[in-house]
Amino acid sequence: MVHVLEAESKTEITRTPQQLAEFIARSVEAAPSGEKPFLHLVLRDVFPDDIYAAMVKAMPVYDDYRPMHGRSKASNTQGNSTRVKIDLFPEYIRHLPAGKREVWEIVGRALTSRIVQAAFVRRLAPELEKRFGSSYVRTAFFPIPILTRDIPGYKIKPHTDTHWKGITVQLYLPQDDSTSHIGTIFHERRADGSMPKTTQMQFTPNSGYAFAVSDYSWHSADPVGAEVSTRDSILLTYFVDAGPLRKVRNRAKRLGNFIANEFRNR
After folding, report:
1. What CATH class does 15-265 carry?
2. What is the overall mean pLDDT for the chain?
3. 14, 76, 133, 209: which could form a disulfide with 153 (CB 3.0–4.6 Å)?
């Protein structure tokens, strides 16, 4: 049993990473799927209630995060990055206070487990087979779980994820359902180039979505407004890990992020 201590109260996490992984995998297997505008899973009750409560309670403060780069690199009028992140690997979260570190280490280990990956591959099999062929079940993936925080001013235009990625998962972590309107939007790309909003996820507690990356998995996020304090979530990305180039790139990226994180914490 792992005991997670906070300043004024104690939260007990009674599951091992393996037990948590098994729970998450069952949630993935039970998730309903949507077909429009592309195959996706609508995730509910991803984590046990007690684990989810511990995660919300153990949220890092803004200064614990690093700015997100790539498409998500943007700043608000105060000069603050509108999307920041913490990689949920042990070497990245070791600078967090002990109680918070223990929560996120268990979550990170569960999310990178083989059993959770296998559940996503099974549920997204039709799209994965279109991309990787009949041998899709043997395609290697390198999972990277990232705790992200968006603040007012964050937005991202319709895009498809890079083909370095195989599966995209986002797990929403709000305290309540008061900001359900800020969920991710899925788009249909029409012949005339227009991309109407087809489906929008609800940003509600302990929920999320998953899809296989393709040339038509267009998605976006509307600007986060002033009514939102933080938009917290976990981005779990399964990078394709087949072939020497991808294997080296994935591990070099993890090492590079570790070095950047250590330099920042010096």
Report:
1. mainly beta
2. 90
3. 76
